[in-house]
Amino acid sequence: MEEYKQGVRAFFKNDKFAELVGAEIVEVTDKCVVVRAKIGNEHLNGNGFVQGGMLYSVADFAFAVLANYLHPASVTQCGHINYIRPAKTGEITAIARETERAGHTCISEVIVKDDKGETVCICNFNGFVKDVDKLQWIKGV
Amino acid sequence: MEEYKQGVRAFFKNDKFAELVGAEIVEVTDKCVVVRAKIGNEHLNGNGFVQGGMLYSVADFAFAVLANYLHPASVTQCGHINYIRPAKTGEITAIARETERAGHTCISEVIVKDDKGETVCICNFNGFVKDVDKLQWIKGV
Amino acid sequence: MEEYKQGVRAFFKNDKFAELVGAEIVEVTDKCVVVRAKIGNEHLNGNGFVQGGMLYSVADFAFAVLANYLHPASVTQCGHINYIRPAKTGEITAIARETERAGHTCISEVIVKDDKGETVCICNFNGFVKDVDKLQWIKGV
Amino acid sequence: MEEYKQGVRAFFKNDKFAELVGAEIVEVTDKCVVVRAKIGNEHLNGNGFVQGGMLYSVADFAFAVLANYLHPASVTQCGHINYIRPAKTGEITAIARETERAGHTCISEVIVKDDKGETVCICNFNGFVKDVDKLQWIKGV
User: What order of strands is seen across the sheet that includes strand A91-102?
Assistant: First the structure.
């Protein structure tokens, strides 16, 4: 499994958009994926808060890593985000946990927190799991 | 109204994250807002497709511009995205249209298309409209 | 096609829950499905408004009819509802229109209105379209 | 608090639609609300499964009870449902837990299970909390 975990990390190192927005994988386990981003001026909206697209992007990336670690070749079907509090500075952390897996469907909740531990937004993702072998997938990428 | 439209555009020029991801306001009218982004390598995921966070970010930005043009000082409460087809190259265009406004709530649908005119994703946003005067808002920003 | 439309209506006549809540199919065309319900005391919540589950149920039923009329053997993957205004008496009407179909995915918007034509809620549904022949499906049900 | 809990239960006894669909409050605590419904023929769709509107209605009711128990005079702004597995017979149970409360916003996750304990659907609700005193609210209803 450790080899597979390394493969997933390597695959997501090729995610150029995650790199652009500064989203970094901090932790990958069977229970959760943690993604973090240091907030700079480039992440802010006109009001000086972390922009909504940035918050979503970090959450979505955490889900993508988790879903593909647990079930290779998952694709996101829907994402849903509830904005709770504004975030301004420091860093934001997205923690993705799978709520359910059944058949071709996997559902995760992703909570994004600021560096005081306050919840900034709460997301839910619905992924479609393809019929692909894990090792085959990791060799192909 | 033309003065206000200029004010809204000026305000969103200060959106640093929109700048980072390359989202540009193309059109602002009472009927719709159009936002466009040229796709480069930095917008792609590990599979070589436009990353899900990028797609959402462009849609969310179009909604933010529209909601604040129509109703000053709107904030996004929830966003929902359905991914339909992958997009790879060229440019993506988000068209935001308001579905409904009632009391403090405004709802928009945003459709993101690739440069062949094919729908890439369909989003829905729910905004909270604050009690703020339009001209007061634009002077304050 | 007329034969198939009759088949779909017959199939949905067997929807016992739609019968329980009083949801009736008014119109089935390629462009939209209209479902209506007369509001009685049994549809109200503790505040005397049409209950949120009732509003969703009528919308969901309109989507189910439309999706299965256009693409046999569709199943709902996700539903999303934005509540706009309360409804109290008279009747409510749900109009379902398909926004997009691509591959196994179909997306519809359903708007529920009260009898003054005011929008009560706005829903979006994501359906999975199975690989089934239309006539085969209708004979099997 | 016990007096208030009784008040909430009394208020929701007046929910006529919950009565129509057979949704019964089983448990009300600070941590969760449990709602149950015995499944009869009247809850089934044309395929013989529990209808999607029925599943949503039970989940939405559990959220409404929880939100109003924790924060009087909450109204649902959005509901989101992911369908996971079909349910056929026996009973269904919705367990609502609050994920977050901040300012006027409260977010809950509601999981609906069949009588084997399998997850049937996963819902998320976003409520708006009004500025109302708890005891004032309960006396008014």
Answer: A23-28, A33-38, A91-102, A105-113, A119-129, A74-83, B74-83, B119-129, B105-113, B91-102, B33-38, B24-28
- Rounded to whole angstroms, what are the CA distances from D93 to A46, D59, D96, D118? 45, 8, 10, 10
Distance to chain B for C99, nearest Cα, Å: 8
Q: Please choose, from the candidates B110, B101, B124, B120, the residue with its C-alpha nearest in 3D space to the C-alpha of residue B33.
A: B110
Calpha distance A139→A131 (Å, rounded): 15
Residues of chain A with Cβ-Cβ distance to C77 below 8 Å are: 77-78, 105, 126
pLDDT at C72: 82
Model pLDDT, residue A17: 98
pLDDT score recorded for residue A91:
98
pTM: 0.94
Question: How far lies C140's CA from each of C7, D43, D88, in Å?
Answer: 10, 21, 19
How far from the centroid of its chain's Cα atoms is residue D113's Cα? Answer: 13
Q: Indicate yes or no: CB of B56 within 8 angstroms of CB of A60.
A: yes
Q: Do A15 and B58 touch (CB under 8 A)?
A: no
Say yes or no to pLDDT of D32 above 60. yes
Q: Which positions in chain A touch C78 (Cβ < 8 Å)?
A: 77-78, 126
* Spans in chain A with pLDDT lower than 70: 1, 134-141
Q: Which of D53, D64, D82 sits opposite C57 (nearest CB)?
A: D53
Is the pLDDT at B69 greater than 70? The verdict is: yes
- Chain B environment of C127 (Cβ under 8 Å): none
Which residue type occupies C53?
A: G
Alpha helices in A14-133 (DSSP H): 16-21, 52-70
pLDDT at position D33: 97
pLDDT band with cut points at 50, 70 and 90 for residue D2: confident
Distance (Å, rounded) from C-alpha A10 to C-alpha A141? 9
Q: In sequence order, what E strands does chain C have?
A: 24-28, 33-38, 74-83, 91-102, 105-113, 119-129
> What's the complex ipTM?
0.94
What is the band of C3 on the pLDDT scale with cuts at 50, 70, 90? confident
Dihedrals phi, psi of C6, to nearest 5 degrees = -60, -40
Q: B8, B134, B3, B139: which is closest to B72 by C-alpha?
A: B134
CB contact under 8 A, A46 and B19: no
Q: Hey, are the CB atoms on C58 and D54 less than 8 Å from each other? A: no
Average pLDDT over residues C113-141: 85
- Nearest alpha carbon to residue D126 among D76, D71, D74, D57: D76
